[in-house]
Amino acid sequence: MSTTQYLTRDEVGILLTAAAHAPSMHNTQPWKFEIQGPVIDVLRDPERALPVADPGGRMSRIGLGAAAFNLRVAAALLGHETTLALEPDPARPAVALRIFLAGRRVPVPGLSSLYGEITRRHTYRGPLLAVPMPPVLRHELTVAAQAEEAELDWLDGTRRTQLGRIIHDADEREVHDEDRLHERMQWIGGRRDDDGVPAAALGPLPQTPASVRDLAAGFEVPDRGRASFETKAAVAVLSTPAEDSHGWLLAGMALQHLLLTATAHDLTASFLNQALEYTDLRDQVRTLIGRRSWPQLILRCGYPADSAGHTPRRHWNDTLGTRVTPEGSEPWNK
């Protein structure tokens, strides 16, 4: 595609609808997009920041990376090879990633095969079946993370126990942090039409302590019910060699690559990231994985025992700023 060729509205809809299905902390969907010919900019939306839980913007940039990976997958389905530039414009620090679309041909092998998993993937917070994940699948998920320059460290029983103590410490801190609870209440529970995590997607409360995060801890959500959770969940730590904004963006791409790969095998995942939201506890997790890299996400993986509610998404039109056409700049939702 040359710079004089432009995406159609239908193509933009396909690309940005895919991006919208990326995971983000509390489903804030902290992204905006700008399109100029075959170039798509992914921008951080400051109005969707979490200044208490994510003061440095690490998790929001992970979300942007995941959205960018979905864009690459959708572009591959449309026949576009993609190249990336991280934080390409020092004069515009809000632009986190720039995606360049090559000339359109046939669906790009590899990435395009993941397109059907984008809308199937969702965060599952219910109990898992007592069915171990085959080692070959663990390896496949590890390779998916490595393809985006990240590492996936599967914890053995001893380290899972140690992580459990760290998570318990984080949970205790959270329920006594009024600022954090107030911020979370803006996004969690109730009925949610286009963002946040509705009550139906929170999952049941565990009957006994379990490796699952209760996003509603600290405030009441009626009619959730209780369930018996697995005792030995497969838990992995996703990490990156770099601890900077580039590393966070790469972590997001790695996360989405492995999540779509997991979904293709009917696996599901949820997050135990509260252990990474406090500096000292994150350092303990880093020690747990050998201090060779920086932990960015903690995943609980397995086969779901029940169905679960999905989190809503904004219409792609609501995430798009301006486009540049032969006639000049104008809003897409004009």
From TrEMBL:
What Gene Ontology molecular function terms does this protein carry? oxidoreductase activity
Annotated organism of origin: Kribbella solani
Q: Which InterPro entries match?
A: Nitroreductase-like (IPR000415), Nitroreductase/BluB (IPR050627)
**What is the name attached to this protein's record?**
Nitroreductase
Q: Which segments carry the region annotation Disordered?
A: 310-334
